[in-house]
Amino acid sequence: MQLTAESLIGLVRNYYRADRDFDLGLENSPEAERFLTLWVQEREKMDQWDAFVDEVQAVLPRFMVSNITSTCDASFRCAVYSRAVNDPPPSRWVVVGCVSILAPVYTVYGVRFRLQDKRRTTDQVFLDALPPDLQAPAEVISRTLEATFGVTTLPHELARTPVPLIVEFKEPPHTTLFDALFISQPDSIP
After folding, report:
1. In order along the chain (190 residues), what is the average pLDDT of each group of 10 residues?
2. Is residue 130 left, alpha or beta, with left meaning phi > 0 and alpha meaning psi from -120 to 50?
């Protein structure tokens, strides 16, 4: 598959709609049915994904690595959490690696949040350039994703391409290829 905005928008049109005509109905839209069917097929890769998460954990023993995949999203996701607090308290960060189920692409991004009474109060999402303290785990995730799944990174400029479709709770003009190929709420981290 050629990674162009046009080809990727054409692809995601198979799984998302530009209207909410089926939102209150008893039936799924044809696009939602295709998405659900694809996830049924992709679930067969869950053992391979779990092995990938274990491999990243072995390479990054000072971090906690978890599978945070949800079949509501269009990607397998793993999270690398900082165990030690090197940031000014009470700041924490997570590096997330995603492999799209719709196209042979991946992305790695970061989320920084503050804890107040054990609750997150502020999220800052880094979809483009990661801060220096997030780069080492991001590089491990990238190398391992490419070697394990044969995927390529989705260029940031392509990820920001607007799509005229509704993805979860995002609607045009705010919906992007990132939302459609990976997750519409990247700060949603357990």
Report:
1. 92 97 91 97 96 98 96 97 64 93 98 81 87 94 98 97 96 97 94
2. beta
Q: What is the CA radius of gyration of the chain?
A: 17
Cβ-based neighbours of 41, under 8 Å, separated by 6 or more: none
DSSP 34-90: HHHHHHHHHGGGHHHHHHHHHHHHHH-TTEEEEE---TTSSEEEEEEEESS--SSTT
What's the DSSP call for residue 113? Answer: E
Residue in this structure with the two tokens 């260029």, named with its chain if needed? 155
Strands 152-153 and 105-116: parallel
Please say whether the beta carbons of 96 and 189 come within 8 A. Answer: yes
The reported pTM is 0.93
